[in-house]
Amino acid sequence: MDLTPRPGATPAPPGAYHAYAETPAETTTRLRPVPAGRPFRTAAAAVCAVLGLGLIGGAVTGSWLTGDSAAEPGQDSAYTVSRSVWHSVPVGTLFPRTLKGEGAGPGATDRMWTRVAVAGDSDCAAGLDPLLLKALRPVGCERLLRATYTDATRSSVTTVGMVFTEANAEGMDALSGRFTAQKLAVRSDLMPRAYPARDTVAAHFTDATRASWTVHVLTEVPVVVFAVSGFADGRAVAEPQPAAEAMAAGATTAVAQAGLGHEAKGVADRVERALRRTVTDLTEKPE
Questions:
Q1: Same domain (yes/no): 65, 113
Q2: Residue 161 has pLDDT above 60, yes or no
Q3: 263 or 107, greater pLDDT
Q4: Residues 189, 264: one domain?
Q5: Domain check: are 141 and 85 in the same one?
Q6: What percent of the chain shows pLDDT beyond 90?
Q7: Is pLDDT at 42 greater than 90 in this prediction?
Q8: Is residue 33 part of a domain?
């Protein structure tokens, strides 16, 4: 895969989405709701469900008899459930209003992040750099969700996002392997974009002020989680640093000493955990 940046390519302008004010301290765009069902469709769905149970039962029995581990119902269920999470789960579940980061800061200090903006769900072209979009193209993009948080001191801001892909488990495994083998997650030209919001502490968070980032390809669900952090005062950063490097012992760069690697990794990890809990709860929900 050729991931060479195109000459003259420029990032999309910040504030590409209009966000509607929810409170004076937060700018939030509602995620797309699930359409209301219709009686005929409900009846048809019930019939399909009955037929589907029979087919699923046969498939599960077949996997038990043949020992086909790739046909494990738990994994299939997690992938199926995950595909609808972006529009069926409340925004506060996917992006909690506050995130607690016990031991998540430099020197294992505690952190607390507050959500200041949520972008409307969009396609990936609207929120990802063209080169990162190209790297994710093999798995497709179902939807992109993003939110921006600030720390307790309001001195840093972090945009966190989730790319819901169209891939199956095999496709996500392949993408994860490629990101690892080619070290794509630490390439600055594949850094995720910032999501600023007017009238918030993140108003000046643009692509030029990005300082540290992390990208994690999940394999148990079809989702890529990323986060990018920067200074809230809008200062430009000449040499952004991957979170793993900024968090390394002995790192002395301005990005590392400001704890911006910890900010990106801490926010991404907690949003990822919220997603995992949500999918687990939905897949284990009693009939």
A1: no
A2: yes
A3: 263
A4: yes
A5: yes
A6: 66
A7: no
A8: no
Residue 282 φ/ψ, nearest 5 degrees: -70, -35
E strand residue ranges, the chain = 21-23, 26-28, 98-101, 111-118, 143-151, 156-164, 210-217, 223-231, 241-242
- How many Å apart are CA 230 and CA 155, to the nearest integer? 9
Q: How confident is the model at residue 107 (pLDDT cuts 50, 70, 90)?
A: confident
Q: Are residues 84 and 54 in the same domain?
A: no
Phi, psi of 219 (to 5 degrees): -120, -20
* Closest among 188, 266, 175 to 217, alpha carbons compared: 175
Q: Verify that 49 and 151 share a domain, yes or no.
A: no
Q: Are 94 and 274 in contact (CB under 8 A)?
A: yes
Instruction: Write out the residue range of the structural domain in which residue 51 sits.
Output: 39-70
* Orientation angle between helical segments 73-88 and 260-283, nearest 10 degrees: 110
Q: Which tokens sit at 267?
A: 């926010």
Predicted TM-score (pTM) of this structure: 0.76
| Least confident piece of the model among 82-86, 181-185, 276-280 | 82-86
Both tokens of 250, joined, read 């002995």
The per-residue pLDDT for 268 is: 98
Residue 27 lies in a domain: no
- Say if residue 66 is in the same domain as residue 195: no
CA-based radius of gyration for the chain? 20
CB atoms within 10 A of CB 203: 18
Query: Tens digit of pLDDT for each residue in 210-261?
Result: 999 999 999 999 999 999 999 999 999 999 999 999 999 999 999 999 999 9
Mean predicted confidence (pLDDT) in 91-97: 96
Count of residues in the chain: 287
Instruction: Record the tokens describing residue 137, joined without a space.
Output: 């193209």
Residue 1: inside a domain: no
Residue 17 lies in a domain: no
Backbone angles phi, psi at 162, to 5 degrees: -135, 125
Distance CA 49, CA 42 (A): 10
